[in-house]
């Protein structure tokens, strides 16, 4: 199983790193808007708190766009093109395919997060090493539950051309409402962007020795578990037969 997953991981890595559109959405566009929206910071660096709050939002965008397009919709494309059925025939099971896809996107978003974080920190004269530590921790613990959550897209009985624009547009209100404070932290379950943002803030507080919010920590761990359970259920109902003619 692990060898087959590794082979699919290598295959999907070759695909994603040659995909200029994926690189554009996951790295180039976030970096462009980070600079464009804060041109004044180039000559007048912000305080570290303002910089963190902004870069956390961009991390949320990068992870979400990878989860939606690189995992959920990408697996739909494999199904609709007949590759999922063919790969299952080769691998005898769809699990190595899904693990290989998630692993390749995890690696891809981690590389992009590191590049984005280093570039932004250098441009805006922020402590690169400190922000990079937070980014690496986020890259290790956050993408897998988020990717698992968005496997439910792959289980939908519709063609990817139909739902791809809907979910791409949906991502922007998720990012927008991620900044809205909620008293009931369990509501973070409803917005994965808020989940990413709160994990980022929690990790930042821990790294900077500002304390550890135990209640929030437990809540986020429970949410991670729920996301992974949704992923497991979604995996079981992912079809391998192309939905020809299905709108």
UniProtKB/TrEMBL annotation:
Q: Which residues cross the membrane?
A: 21-43, 55-78, 98-123, 129-151, 163-180, 216-238
Keyword list, A-Z: Membrane, Transmembrane, Transmembrane helix
Stated name of the protein: ABC transporter permease
Which species does the entry assign this protein to? Answer: Geobacillus icigianus
